[in-house]
Amino acid sequence: MHTRRIGDVEVSAIGLGAMPMSIEGRPDEARSLATIHAALDIGVTLVDTADAYHRDADEVGHNETLIAKALASQDRGRDVLVATKGGHLRPGGGSWTLDGRPEHLKAACEASLRRLGVEAVGLYQFHRPDPGVPYAESVGAIRELLDEGKIRMAGISNADPDQIRQANEILGGRLVSVQNQFSPAFRSSEPELRLCDELGIAFLPWSPLGGISRAGELGSAHAPFARIATVHGVSPQRICLAWMLAKSPVVVPIPGASRPETIRDSAAATDLVLTTEELAELDAG
């Protein structure tokens, strides 16, 4: 497995997005555990989660608990960077709300620590800006968690360039990651990707294959990815991830998976080399 860096930690160039294993349409626990274990077996050392990755209102942190169980069963916790997030909530009925108050973020981090069974969260990210709370106050809480040793590294998610610069300043240059949506169908985060490349901050594309319900349609929706996949004899999804990896050494995609074969295919993108002409075609399409 090829590797990249998040802060001072070396991680697999492809991470595992664990969200599909906990929300609506999730598989049974046995298949989820098998998926996580398959990821570990092929060298994946970055697992992305959040306290809001759950289906029902009374199971906050379902995904964190699942990951902790999977890591404990193979005694792999020290080999894996678990990236979790706080500040986004699912109060029920499939709805999403925001809470960027410092007191909420600190309490959410404490709860994540307990569920993950660790003394410090490897990477803790402010999940999404809350319009009702000044951004500086929310990121200030993340800085305090970092200073207190509750988290080892700090990141932000769903941020624009100004917020990236502001967060990095508030954190005293210690911002290590930005997790934004980026895929063939959603390319508006290119400015954030370029800024992260300039600053040496890891850029973690979420839903890199287009989302849980549309990942299987990537080839039919984006002809260049299907054409080049045929040339290489691989899936359009693998082409997509290789295209992202080629954009910058700071890019670490986190494709979602809920089956062992899916994460195996995604991870194989690290070995796929695309030509300059193929990359240009994918950029245009």
Write the layout of secondary structure elements.
Layout: E1 3-6, E2 9-12, E3 16-17, H1 29-41, E4 46-48, H2 62-74, E5 81-86, E6 88-92, E7 95-98, H3 102-116, E8 123-126, H4 135-147, E9 154-157, H5 161-170, E10 175-181, H6 190-199, E11 202-206, H7 218-221, H8 223-232, H9 236-247, H10 260-267, H11 276-284
Parallel strand pairs: 3-4, 4-5, 5-8, 8-9, 9-10, 10-11
Antiparallel strand pairs: 1-2, 6-7
Give a nutshell description of this structure.
By secondary structure, the chain is α/β, with parallel strands linked by helices. Helix content is 41%, strand content 17%.
Descriptive account of the structure:
This protein is of the alpha/beta class and 285 residues long. Helix content is 41%, strand content 17%. Strands 3-4-5-8-9-10-11 form a seven-stranded parallel sheet, with helices on one face. A two-stranded antiparallel sheet has the order 1-2. The chain has a two-stranded antiparallel ribbon with strand order 6-7. Strand 3, helix 1 and strand 4 form a beta-alpha-beta unit. The longest helix has 15 residues, at 102-116. It is globular. It starts with a strand and ends with a helix.
Alpha-carbon Rg, integer: 18 Å
Question: What is the approximate shape?
Answer: globular
What is the average of the pLDDT values? Answer: 95
Order of secondary-structure elements: EEEHEHEEEHEHEHEHEHHHHH
End-to-end separation in angstroms reads 28 Å
Task: Work out the helix count.
Answer: 11
Q: What amount of the residues lies in strands?
A: 15-25%
Number of strands: 11
Global structural class: alpha/beta
Describe the main β-sheet briefly: 7 strands, parallel
List low-pLDDT spans. none
The strands making up the biggest β-sheet line up spatially as 3-4-5-8-9-10-11
- The level of helicity is 40-55%
